[in-house]
C-alpha cells in the first residue's frame, strides 16, 4: 500500500516536471495551421521541422546566437584565466585576504542586482561600453567570478599539497612543479568551471537587458524575449523551436556533469 | 629571474611563514590575487559602494543632470510610495510562498528519490532539467502553457482564462513557475543531505520500534536541519531578488499585480531614469533581506542548541 502511494506521488512529480517540456516540444513541431485551431492538439498531427528552419530566418536569431557565443566564450575564458591564480592563492595560503575573498563570495549572493547595475551602467556609459559586447563581457566576468573562484579553490584544495612538495624535493622549480604536477590534476576542475562560466553567460538575461538596448547587438535571450510580440499564435512554433535550440548548450553541459553533480559538487558544497 | 624560478619552494607551514615581516608568501599571494581583485574592485565592490552612495542623492540616469546630495529624502519618499508598498507586499508573498512550497515539493521528491523506486531514474533526470534551462526559455515555455488560445492548461481544464493577464490569477500562476524552476537545486541538495544521514540511526530507530513517521520526525528532519537552513536561506535570497523569469512572463503586469520589487526598481531606474530613488529601493531591499536572513539564522541556531 505504501509503495502504491509512493508511485502515485512519483508519477505526479514526473507529470508536473515533464508536461511543460512536452508542450514546448509539441508546439515546436506543429504547423501554423494546427497552431491556429481553437482546440489545441496534444500530439502534432503532421509533425514538422519547418519551425526550426523558420526560426533561423526570424529576427536575426542566428546573429544573436553568434553574439551570445562570442560573449560567453570570452567571458568564460577570461573568468577562468583571472580566477585560477586567485583560487590557487585562496586554497594554499590562508590569510586575511582569503577570508575577505570568501566573505565577498557570500555577500555577492545577497545584494540585489539593482544596487550594482545602476552605477555599473553609469560607469560603462562613461567608458562608452554600453551597447557593446565587450561591455557585457566585462559584466559577465565580474558576476561569474565569485562562484568560479569558489569552485576552483575547491578543486585546488583537492590536489594534495604533498604532491607539489614532492616535486619540489625532486628539484623541480615552483612554476615547474605547478605546471607538471598541479595542472594535470586540476584540468577536470578547470573544464567544469569553464563550462559553468560559459553557461552562466549564455543564459544570462538581466544584465544583458540593461547593457544592450540596441536590437542590433542583442544576445540570444534578449532576442527570444523580443520574439514574443503581440503577433498572435502563428509565430509560437518558431519561438518554441528557437527556445529549444537555445537550451542545447546547457543540456550538453548538464549531460557532462550530471554524474558528478549529485555526489561531488553538491555534497561538497553542503558539507562545507 | 631564473634564480627565483628554479629555487625549490621549501615546504612551509602557515606558522613558520608568519615570522618575517612582509614575507614572500604574502607578496606571492597578492600577485596571484591581483588579476581577480582588479575587476572585482572596479566593477563590483566599487559600483556597490557607489550605488549605496547614490541612494542618498537625486541622481538621474541621464548624461546631463547635476546630482545633489539629498540625505534621506529618497527614503521618506519610499515610505510614502503606495506603489512601492504594493510591490513590496507582492515580493513578500512571492518570495515566502515560492521558498516554502519549493522546499516542501523538493523534500517530497528527494524522499521519494532516496527510496530507490523503479523509474526514479527518469524522475531524477527530469528533476535536473529545469536547472539546465535558461530562465528566459523557462519563462517562454510557461507562457506557451498559459497561453489563452494555444495553451495546454486551458485545454486541460476546459477553461478560457488568460492566466497571466488575470488580476487575481497572475500571481499564483507565476508562483507555480517559480516552484517549477527552483525545485531542482533544492531537490539535489536535499537528496545529497539525505544520503549523508547515517544508516545506523535508522536501524537503531527501527529496533526501538519507531514507525516511518516517527523516524522521519526524529531522525531525518533533525539530521537534515543544517542543509535545510542553508538551502531555504539561499532560495529566499534568490527568490526575493528574482527578475528575469517574471520579466519574461508578465513584465510585472497586469496592472502591477506581479511587479516584484526588482521589477519596480528596474522600471524606476531605466524607464523613469530615477537612479537615486531606485538605488534607495535596492538598499532598502538589501537591508530587509539581511534582517530576515539574520533573524532566521539566529533562531535556527538557537533552536539547534
TrEMBL record, chain A:
<keyword id="KW-0812">Transmembrane</keyword>
<feature type="transmembrane region" description="Helical">
    <location>
        <begin position="101"/>
        <end position="124"/>
    </location>
</feature>
<feature type="domain" description="ABC transmembrane type-1">
    <location>
        <begin position="65"/>
        <end position="257"/>
    </location>
</feature>
<feature type="transmembrane region" description="Helical">
    <location>
        <begin position="177"/>
        <end position="199"/>
    </location>
</feature>
<dbReference type="GO" id="GO:0005886">
    <property type="term" value="C:plasma membrane"/>
</dbReference>
<feature type="transmembrane region" description="Helical">
    <location>
        <begin position="136"/>
        <end position="156"/>
    </location>
</feature>
<dbReference type="InterPro" id="IPR050901">
    <property type="entry name" value="BP-dep_ABC_trans_perm"/>
</dbReference>
<comment type="similarity">
    <text>Belongs to the binding-protein-dependent transport system permease family.</text>
</comment>
<keyword id="KW-0472">Membrane</keyword>
<feature type="transmembrane region" description="Helical">
    <location>
        <begin position="7"/>
        <end position="25"/>
    </location>
</feature>
<protein>
    <submittedName>
        <fullName>Sugar ABC transporter permease</fullName>
    </submittedName>
</protein>
<keyword id="KW-1003">Cell membrane</keyword>
<feature type="transmembrane region" description="Helical">
    <location>
        <begin position="236"/>
        <end position="257"/>
    </location>
</feature>
<dbReference type="InterPro" id="IPR000515">
    <property type="entry name" value="MetI-like"/>
</dbReference>
<dbReference type="GO" id="GO:0055085">
    <property type="term" value="P:transmembrane transport"/>
</dbReference>
<dbReference type="Pfam" id="PF00528">
    <property type="entry name" value="BPD_transp_1"/>
</dbReference>
<feature type="transmembrane region" description="Helical">
    <location>
        <begin position="69"/>
        <end position="89"/>
    </location>
</feature>
<keyword id="KW-1133">Transmembrane helix</keyword>
<dbReference type="InterPro" id="IPR035906">
    <property type="entry name" value="MetI-like_sf"/>
</dbReference>
<keyword id="KW-0813">Transport</keyword>
From TrEMBL, chain B:
<keyword id="KW-1133">Transmembrane helix</keyword>
<keyword id="KW-1003">Cell membrane</keyword>
<protein>
    <submittedName>
        <fullName>Transporter</fullName>
    </submittedName>
</protein>
<feature type="transmembrane region" description="Helical">
    <location>
        <begin position="92"/>
        <end position="113"/>
    </location>
</feature>
<dbReference type="InterPro" id="IPR035906">
    <property type="entry name" value="MetI-like_sf"/>
</dbReference>
<keyword id="KW-0812">Transmembrane</keyword>
<feature type="transmembrane region" description="Helical">
    <location>
        <begin position="125"/>
        <end position="142"/>
    </location>
</feature>
<feature type="transmembrane region" description="Helical">
    <location>
        <begin position="270"/>
        <end position="298"/>
    </location>
</feature>
<feature type="transmembrane region" description="Helical">
    <location>
        <begin position="29"/>
        <end position="52"/>
    </location>
</feature>
<dbReference type="InterPro" id="IPR000515">
    <property type="entry name" value="MetI-like"/>
</dbReference>
<keyword id="KW-0472">Membrane</keyword>
<dbReference type="GO" id="GO:0005886">
    <property type="term" value="C:plasma membrane"/>
</dbReference>
<comment type="similarity">
    <text>Belongs to the binding-protein-dependent transport system permease family.</text>
</comment>
<feature type="transmembrane region" description="Helical">
    <location>
        <begin position="224"/>
        <end position="250"/>
    </location>
</feature>
<keyword id="KW-0813">Transport</keyword>
<dbReference type="GO" id="GO:0055085">
    <property type="term" value="P:transmembrane transport"/>
</dbReference>
<dbReference type="InterPro" id="IPR051393">
    <property type="entry name" value="ABC_transporter_permease"/>
</dbReference>
<feature type="domain" description="ABC transmembrane type-1">
    <location>
        <begin position="88"/>
        <end position="296"/>
    </location>
</feature>
<feature type="transmembrane region" description="Helical">
    <location>
        <begin position="162"/>
        <end position="181"/>
    </location>
</feature>
<dbReference type="Pfam" id="PF00528">
    <property type="entry name" value="BPD_transp_1"/>
</dbReference>
<feature type="region of interest" description="Disordered">
    <location>
        <begin position="1"/>
        <end position="20"/>
    </location>
</feature>
Amino acid at each position: 500500500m505504501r509503495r502504491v502511494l509512493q508511485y502515485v506521488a512519483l508519477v505526479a512529480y514526473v507529470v508536473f516536471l515533464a508536461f511543460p517540456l512536452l508542450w514546448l516540444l509539441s508546439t515546436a513541431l506543429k504547423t501554423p495551421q494546427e497552431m491556429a485551431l481553437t482546440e489545441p492538439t496534444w500530439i502534432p498531427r503532421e509533425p514538422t521541422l519547418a519551425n526550426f528552419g523558420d526560426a533561423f530566418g526570424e529576427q536575426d536569431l542566428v546573429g544573436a546566437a553568434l553574439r551570445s557565443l562570442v560573449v560567453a566564450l570570452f567571458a568564460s575564458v577570461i573568468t577562468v584565466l583571472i580566477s585560477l591564480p586567485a583560487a590557487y592563492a585562496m586554497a594554499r595560503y590562508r590569510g586575511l585576504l582569503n577570508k575577505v575573498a570568501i566573505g565577498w563570495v557570500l555577500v555577492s549572493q545577497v545584494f540585489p542586482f539593482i544596487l550594482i547595475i545602476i552605477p555599473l551602467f553609469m560607469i560603462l556609459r562613461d567608458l562608452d561600453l554600453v551597447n557593446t559586447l565587450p561591455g557585457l563581457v566585462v559584466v559577465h566576468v565580474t558576476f561569474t567570478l565569485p562562484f568560479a573562484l569558489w569552485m576552483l579553490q575547491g578543486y585546488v584544495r583537492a590536489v594534495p599539497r604533498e604532491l607539489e612538495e614532492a616535486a619540489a624535493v625532486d628539484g623541480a622549480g615552483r612554476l615547474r612543479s605547478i605546471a607538471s604536477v598541479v595542472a594535470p590534476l586540476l584540468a577536470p576542475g578547470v573544464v567544469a568551471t569553464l563550462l559553468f562560466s560559459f553557461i552562466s553567460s549564455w543564459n544570462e538575461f538581466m544584465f544583458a537587458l540593461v547593457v544592450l538596448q540596441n536590437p542590433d547587438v542583442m544576445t540570444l535571450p534578449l532576442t527570444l524575449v523580443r520574439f514574443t510580440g503581440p503577433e498572435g499564435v502563428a509565430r509560437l512554433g518558431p519561438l518554441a523551436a528557437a527556445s529549444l535550440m537555445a537550451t542545447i548548450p546547457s543540456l550538453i553541459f548538464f549531460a557532462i556533469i550530471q554524474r558528478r553533480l549529485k555526489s561531488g559538487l553538491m555534497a561538497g558544497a553542503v558539507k562545507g | 629571474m631564473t634564480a627565483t624560478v628554479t629555487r625549490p619552494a621549501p615546504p612551509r607551514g602557515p606558522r613558520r611563514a608568519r615570522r618575517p615581516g612582509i614575507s614572500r608568501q604574502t607578496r606571492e599571494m597578492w600577485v596571484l590575487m591581483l588579476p581577480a581583485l582588479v575587476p572585482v574592485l572596479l566593477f563590483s565592490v566599487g559600483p556597490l559602494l557607489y550605488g549605496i552612495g547614490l541612494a542618498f542623492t537625486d541622481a538621474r540616469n541621464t548624461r546631463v543632470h547635476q546630482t545633489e546630495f539629498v540625505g534621506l529624502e529618497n527614503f521618506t519618499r519610499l515610505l510614502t510610495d503606495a506603489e512601492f508598498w504594493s510591490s513590496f507586499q507582492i515580493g513578500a508573498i512571492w518570495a515566502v510562498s515560492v521558498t516554502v512550497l519549493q522546499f516542501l515539493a523538493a523534500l517530497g521528491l528527494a524522499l521519494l528519490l532516496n527510496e530507490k523506486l523503479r523509474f526514479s531514474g527518469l524522475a531524477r533526470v527530469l528533476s535536473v532539467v529545469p536547472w539546465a534551462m535558461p530562465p528566459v526559455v523557462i519563462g517562454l515555455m510557461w507562457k506557451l502553457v498559459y497561453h489563452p488560445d494555444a495553451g495546454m492548461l486551458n485545454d486541460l481544464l476546459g477553461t478560457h482564462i488568460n492566466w497571466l493577464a488575470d488580476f487575481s490569477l497572475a500571481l499564483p500562476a507565476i508562483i507555480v513557475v517559480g516552484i517549477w524552476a527552483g525545485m531542482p537545486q533544492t531537490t539535489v541538495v536535499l537528496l545529497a543531505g539525505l544520503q549523508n544521514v547515517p544508516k545506523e540511526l535508522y536501524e537503531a530507530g527501527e529496533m526501538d520500534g519507531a514507525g516511518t513517521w516517527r523516524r522521519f520526525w526524529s531522525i531525518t528532519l533533525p539530521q537534515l536541519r543544517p542543509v535545510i537552513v542553508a538551502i531555504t536561506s539561499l532560495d529566499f535570497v534568490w527568490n526575493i531578488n528574482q527578475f528575469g523569469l517574471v520579466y519574461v512572463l508578465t513584465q510585472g503586469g497586469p496592472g502591477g499585480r506581479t511587479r516584484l520589487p526588482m521589477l519596480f526598481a528596474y522600471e524606476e531606474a531605466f524607464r523613469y531614469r530615477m537612479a537615486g530613488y531606485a538605488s534607495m529601493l535596492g538598499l532598502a531591499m538589501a537591508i530587509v533581506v539581511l534582517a530576515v536572513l539574520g533573524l532566521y539564522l539566529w533562531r535556527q541556531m538557537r533552536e539547534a542548541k
